[in-house]
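Summary of Year 1 activities. Much of the first year was spent building the evaluation harness for sequence design. The harness presents a backbone, in tokenized form, and records the residue chosen at every position. We chose the following record to illustrate the format because it has been used consistently in internal testing since the harness was completed.
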């Protein structure tokens, strides 16, 4: 490959063709230097990430469809924040979140993962809490001393909703609203039919022996696709004109990022895949009605587009296409362990053919991301060898570099870069 573009100016006629570097020169503040290996294995770094990132920022825990009626709840254990959080729809329809710890002697109030109830009752001594967190009942209350019942409710956790996604923030006084935190990335996705596309969902969850950034980084670059996924998607994201699956567009936000992924509409599916794709639910299509998409989806309106990666810092991705979307959550458990959850969302199937297509797409997605999964533990298993002190990053790995830069700024207590030298279409190769 010849590196011809050093000023970021690349012809649109290439449609993602491998013709040199396009992205890093647009964001000179990130530099082009190596990435220290230590960030994946350092216990000290992990503890700083816990205190200065995860205990301070908005974290996605689920969607509103998980709580259709008052009393419905789910529990998200968040090892990185050293807590468990109950998320519940209260009687007035609003969504609340609470630390899952009893005010009496600290028992975890809810032990199961989800359910529906009218009160939360602690199994230890039967203290009961209303859906809005207020303490409702104490057995043998008269035998306590100086009880201030209105101060003994469940401890609230900040909760806000964006486009149906529920976010919590364990900082008792969050430094900014969820809307401000998501910023331009959030507003530019307004209008994407997340609610309609969330009628059907399927998740894969597994704990892997790898640092959360090892797991996350694999999903924020396409450079690996022609190689690691050569059996599952041999020609879906590459073409003769774009053999290395170069992105169509990349845009960085202060903490978040977006990349538009090239799709080869001429790829050759297997016979069973072709049958499934006939009924929809596949990312690579030729009949996109591009004008219906929000401005933040396929911002360049490129006809060779297939999906956008939207990386929401620190550990949530919302990857959107025209007919469906999927999410990743990367929950750190220890410096070398991560709970990884991927969820695919589809509109309600109207025919058996569409249902079959969605099921095929779901299993196909599992098989592809299992290929990613194999690299995580193999990578982590040798990182502590000390053989490599740093790693080099390709121009197409801009999002990897950017997210490590934000981690570094936050653990050093520096403000994240508020303004980038170029944004939007200026940062594309158009
Ligand atoms: S610890 Fe919950 S009622 Fe005692
Ligand atoms: Fe992959």
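For this record, the design step produced the sequence shown next.
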């Amino acid at each position: 490959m010849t590196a011809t573009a050093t000023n970021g100016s690349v012809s649109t006629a290439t449609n993602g063709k491998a013709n040199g570097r396009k992205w890093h020169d647009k964001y000179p503040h990130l530099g082009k230097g190596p990435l220290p290996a230590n960030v994946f294995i350092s216990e000290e770094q992990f503890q700083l990430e816990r205190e200065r990132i995860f205990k301070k920022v908005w974290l996605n825990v689920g969607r509103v469809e998980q709580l259709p009626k008052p009393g419905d709840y789910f529990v998200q254990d968040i090892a990185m924040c050293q807590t468990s959080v109950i998320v519940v729809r209260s009687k007035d329809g609003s969504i609340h979140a609470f630390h899952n710890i009893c005010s009496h002697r600290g028992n975890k109030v809810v032990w199961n993962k989800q359910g529906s109830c009218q009160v939360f009752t602690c199994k230890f001594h039967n203290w009961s809490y209303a859906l809005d967190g207020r303490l409702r009942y104490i057995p043998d209350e008269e035998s306590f001393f100086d009880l201030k019942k209105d101060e003994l409710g469940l401890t609230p956790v900040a909760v806000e909703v964006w486009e149906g996604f529920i976010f919590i923030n364990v900082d008792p006084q969050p430094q900014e609203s969820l809307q401000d935190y998501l910023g331009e990335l959030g507003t530019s996705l307004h209008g994407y039919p997340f609610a309609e596309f969330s009628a059907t969902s399927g998740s894969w969850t597994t704990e892997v022996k790898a640092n959360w950034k090892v797991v996350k980084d694999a999903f924020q670059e396409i450079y690996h696709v022609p190689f690691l996924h050569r059996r599952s998607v041999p020609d879906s994201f590459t073409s003769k004109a774009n053999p290395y699956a170069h992105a169509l567009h990349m845009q960085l936000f202060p903490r978040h990022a977006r990349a538009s992924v090239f799709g080869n509409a001429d790829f050759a599916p297997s016979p069973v895949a072709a049958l499934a794709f006939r009924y929809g639910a596949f990312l690579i299509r030729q009949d996109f009605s591009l004008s219906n998409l929000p401005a933040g989806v396929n911002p360049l309106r490129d006809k060779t587009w297939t999906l956008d990666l939207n990386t929401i810092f620190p550990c949530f991705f919302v990857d959107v296409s025209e007919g469906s979307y999927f999410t990743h959550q990367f929950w750190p458990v220890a410096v070398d362990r991560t709970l990884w959850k991927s969820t695919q969302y589809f509109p309600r199937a109207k025919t058996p053919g569409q249902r079959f297509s969605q099921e095929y797409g779901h299993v196909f997605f599992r098989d592809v991301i299992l290929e990613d999964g194999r690299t995580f533990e193999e990578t982590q298993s040798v990182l502590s060898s000390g053989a490599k002190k740093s790693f080099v990053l390709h121009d197409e790995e801009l999002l990897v570099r950017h997210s490590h830069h934000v981690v570094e700024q936050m653990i050093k207590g520096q403000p994240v870069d508020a303004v980038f030298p170029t944004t939007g279409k200026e940062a594309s190769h158009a």
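Residues 1-18, 422-430 have pLDDT under 50 and may be disordered. Quantitative recovery figures across the full test set are reported in Table 2.
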